[in-house]
Amino acid sequence: MSGGVVYLVGAGPGDPGLMTRRSLELIASADAILYDRLVPAGALEGARADAELRYVGKEPGAPAVGQQEINRQLVELGRGGKRVVRLKGGDPFVFGRGGEEAEALAEAGVRFEVVPGVTAGLAAPAYAGIPVTHRDVASAVAFVTGHEDRDKPESAVDWNALGRFPGTLVLYMGVRNLGMAAERLTAAGRDPGEATAVVERGTDPGQRVVTGTLSDIAARAEEAEVRPPAVTVIGRVAELRDTIAWLKRRPLHGQVVAVTRARAQASGLAARLRDLGAEVVEAPAIRIERRAVDLPRPESYELICFTSPNGVRLYFEALDRDARALAGVTVAAIGPGTASELTRHGIRSDVVAERFVAEGLLDALGGLNLRGRRALVARAAEARDALPEGLRERGTEVDVVALYDTVAEPLDHAAREGLARATYVTFTSSSTVRFLLESGGRVPESARIASIGPVTSATAREHGLPVHVEAERHDVEGLIQALTDDAAARRVAPA
To answer: Which residues are catalytic?
Structure first.
């Protein structure tokens, strides 16, 4: 055996949350990754910066990297002592040609391991509310490839046997051949009135389900313009969809939500929105650039005010000592997000604004005698001056340290396309509004604008954008609550 190792890894059916912990560990440690078209979005984000990424997927109607060539590359990399991940959608051994790759590696004497993944034939029906087995309905399930050449003289699939099969049939990748499959199954004795469902893009936010009977499902799928990837479920279990369907009951199911905040801060908001059923478009309009600062000694101040989580993080990165340096200093924060970031650095905020704007913090500080005292405001370079000016009006000696600049982030093609489909566009600061529009980002007229608070809303209106949704609590959780409330109200509103 060579010194390298090749891992044949299943990445699951599309939802990144269904990737296994083992798959993520291997991606993070790989020297090289050969990946397919249908791996989940963001699956490669955890790869090392120096990892070699090779796309070997097969695009419909486009030249494909042949299987023999993929085998050759795996053998070559393995023999070269590399730690290689062959990342495949679904499970590598369920219609994934992983068995062929394993054979090639074994014959070449290259060490390999197999990491199973969640296969679409189980996951897509489950996300559609269809159990492939059920004690009262189906005690067996058969997985069948529907991706055969129509012109082959003989089929590798025994349609006659499947016509008599007493259970659920799940056809993989058979949209083009669905009519042919239905005809052969019916001819073999399958009930033409049997419940059937086609699940397109199973487990993805854009999942669609078309239902019908075995006799009419091909026509229904064509009318709905169903496209691969899709699986077809044939059997009485498909009748349970209306009762069990859970995905469409999530609060933001069917919504396409654009997140415009900086990429580094977007992941938490995006993850929460996905958990609620939204399709998330990451269209970062801003980027945080740290400034080189000569940070004043904290013990020379009676009060230090933090206006954002970014400010907290960059302050402690610039501080050459630990959190004990702030002992005896009153620490004030705008918003619970900022307070939470302080907690992560070992600091419990003495004052947190009830209203998450500068004026709210000034109100919260109203009980303190700050005349003649020294205060430091740690913030972005372009932040509003309401806080330092308000403190100075109370006789406080104020220093402002600008820890970072908020700069425009050009939108890539994918972000522009996603933005055009958005049903909600979220703004978490005035800078996200300004820079999105300055970068040429176009907000669809049909989209609803969701703002994190009144300052951001005012900026949006100044730039000609209507604000349909404004968070009462001016932080990420407040914004999410406002979105879910608005989506619920629109669902129940009279036509």
So the answer is: 36, 58, 173
